[in-house]
Structure formats: C-alpha cells, structure tokens
Amino acid sequence: GYVDYYLIVADFIRWAKEQGIPVGPGRGSGAGSIAAYCMHITEMDPMQYHLIFERFLNPERVSMPDFDTDFCQLRRGEVIDYVMGKYGKDHVAQIVTFGTMAARNAIRDVGRVMGMPYQEVDVVAKQVPAELKMTIKHALEVSPELRRMYETDPKVTELLDTAMKVEGMPRHASTHAAGVVITPEPTDYYLPLATNDGLPVTQFNMTEIEELGLLKMDFLALRNLTVIKDALDRIEENHGVKLNMSELDMSDPAVYELLSEGKTDGVFQLESAGMKSFMKQLKPKNLDEIIAGISLYRPGPMDFIPKYLANREHPESIVYDTPKLEKILKSTYGCMVYQEQVMQIVMELAGYSMGRSDLVRRAMAKKKADVMDKERQYFVYGNEELNVPGCVKNGIQESVANKIFDDMVDFANYAFNKSHA
How far is CA 240 from CA 231, 236, 248, 254, in A? Predict the structure, then answer.
C-alpha cells in the first residue's frame, strides 16, 4: 500500500536532479529498501551493505515509515514549489511545530512577568545545567548553588515554583524545518490551517498528522550538499574536470590516507575536533570502517572503541559466545555496533520473525523493564503462540543465551541505525 508514496518521492527527487539541485544519497532506514534504490530515491545498494528492509517497513511496525530527503540548502525551496505546482497549492502545506518552554526559558519568561530585574533572573537561569532534557526539578538536585538560592531567597522560591508549573507548555508556533504534507483533497478538507510568513501551515503537528494517516514528507536542507556542489563547480572551472559524485571509486586508497591523517575539514560527519583525532586512531581502510566509526564515536558506544580497535588488529583473538554470532558481528570485529545486528541476533539465535525483531529492538531502546523480562523468556526458552523456538531449542546453552541478552540490553540504549550511518 505504499505505491503512491514511493512514486511521489521518486518524482520530486528525479525533478530536483534534472534541475541540477544537489540531492543526498539517502538517509535513515529507507536506505534499506531495494525498491527505493532501483527507483533512484536512494543511491546506496542495500545488498552490498547488508541493510535490512524491515528496519524501514514491516507488518508489525506501528508508525508510518518515511524517506527523509536532503536537498541543497539554497535550492530546497524550489523543490517544495515544484510539489505545490504539481499537486496544487491547496493540496500542499508545511507543518507547524510548537516551541515549548524549556527549563531556562521558563525561568526567564516567569521572571519577566513577575517584574524581577533581568540580571537577577539571568543568574538563576544560568544555574540550570545546559543539558538535553534538563528540567528545573532535576537542576535542583544536581546544582547545589541553585538549591541554595531556592531555599534561602523567597523570591527565587516563588520564581522556580511558578516556572515549574509552566515548564514544557507550548510557548510559540513556528514552521517545522522539513515537514510538508501532501493531500488528495485540498488540505483544509482534513486539517485546520494557519499562515506563517504568508505561507499555509497546518495547525496540527507532525505526530497528529501521522495519526490521521496523511502523507508527510521530509524535505531537509543540508549545507554540506551546497558545499560539495560549490567544490565540484570550482574543480570544473579551474581544472576542466567534470566529476560525478555517484560514480566516484569508494575504494580509492588516497582518500583513506587523507582521512587517517585527520584532514577532514568540511567532510560531513567527520569534521569535529574529536572526530579528527578519532580518525587518526581508527585509520579507516574502507567505507565499512568509517560507517562503524561514526556509529561508535558517541556517548555510550565510545567505551567499545578500544575493543573494536584491538579486535581489528588481532582478529584471531576474537571470542564469540556462540559460533552463530560470527557471521553477524564479523564485519564489526566482534562488537555490536548497529540496531540491525540486534535484530539479526534475535532472528538467527532465537528464531524471531523480522517484524517481531524490530519490536524487540524498540522495547530495548526504550528500556521497558516489564517487556524486557517477557522478551528474555521468549529469547531463551521460546514461545509457541508467537512461533518463536528460542535459543535453548536451537542448541544454545541457557547461561550463554542470558549473557547475550544482557549484552544486547546494555548496548541497545546506544545502538545506531546502520542504514543511517
């Protein structure tokens, strides 16, 4: 039932390429679809990189899958204009997003309404650590200075108590950076609309639009594509050489030499100071090792980097808990790196279906304890109703199966989607 979806995406990507607008080679789980590859929606051969289609779409998946498409930052608007021209202005709208009050914002807004001097409020707000998902309540636990101000200054007590009540509430509406909805009837048949900067936007956000079953597309603007296009234009201008990015040799040793020296300014995903020093350490020999490197160089998986490097140097010393793990983990030298590997392990060792393996991966990532206990039972001992034989029936010792399950749970919090990497 996804024919229309594939055809619409393939059409606007084809049009963009014909106009010379740089388009990304594919991003996210959609890279696992061979139909998408054959239709030139993506440029990565999923067979070559052992990607899993079911990570993108399977009968047991609850949410709608989507292709995220990257366009050159300067010309992304042209693609949206093309879609509006093709399907009718009244059939296409951008999607609203609601900015919410984060901890620091809430304190500053409440302080302003309470008439407190900006300097005083600013001192309080700055005591909230600038971390993702930080709340005022958590900040009071981790910041002794904030706690002291809260307990000794009645004005600060009132400020923070009030700010906690409004924290997380919607603060303002803006247009989602990438989301566009395309509808069979005019958009206002399904959705309330508003205008933002004179353009129609939906009054429902991404999630609600998905729940209505409407077709949502992501048109992402990627600066790197613009940079690459400029570089190719300069090469042609200055050296008379016309390069085609999709025809470059992926095994050119000179490129890997350059990366291994940390000379990666302007190279997508590899240009931060940390990534540069990691590339000098990793000295990648092929694209697979860069893909693994990008996935490992993040909080959590970083702990596995020494093991990855040691195993790469001494493959003879890698020990697999069961021989069945070898073909799944061999390409990453015995380390779990990708979500797809978790899916393959539960399928190969315990006989899970593709769809069920994706559900387990999601449960592990969300750390749902009750679900995990049940899944451990199924993984080790099987479940007839679900048609899962389990590890023990497949000749794997109970203790070994439990250890592998523990490893997967530890790792699943951080696992990365290989199609995306």
Answer: 13, 4, 17, 21
Q: Residue-wise over 133-158: b if at least 16 C-beta within 10 A, else e?
A: ebebeebbeebeebeebbeeeeebee
Secondary structure class of 101 (helix, strand, coil)? coil
Contact 387, 353 (CB under 8 A): yes
Q: What is the pLDDT along the chain (421 residues), one digit of tens a residue?
A: 889 889 999 999 999 999 999 999 988 888 999 999 999 999 989 998 888 888 888 777 666 777 889 999 999 999 999 999 999 999 999 999 988 889 999 999 999 999 999 999 999 999 998 888 889 999 999 999 999 999 999 999 999 999 999 999 988 888 887 889 999 999 999 999 998 888 889 999 988 998 888 888 889 999 999 999 999 999 999 999 999 887 888 899 999 999 999 999 989 899 999 999 999 999 999 999 999 999 999 877 888 899 999 999 999 999 999 999 999 999 899 998 898 898 899 999 999 988 888 888 888 877 777 888 888 999 999 998 889 999 999 999 999 999 999 888 888 777 788 888 8
Predicted TM-score of the model (pTM)? 0.79
Cβ burial of 348 (10 Å; 0-12, 13-18, 19+) is middle
Give the DSSP per-residue string, 211-251: HTT-EEEEEEEEHHHHHHHHHHHHHHHHH-----GGGS-TT
- Amino acid residing at 93: A
Query: In terms of Cα–Cα distance, which of 337, 340, 261 is closest to 297?
Result: 337
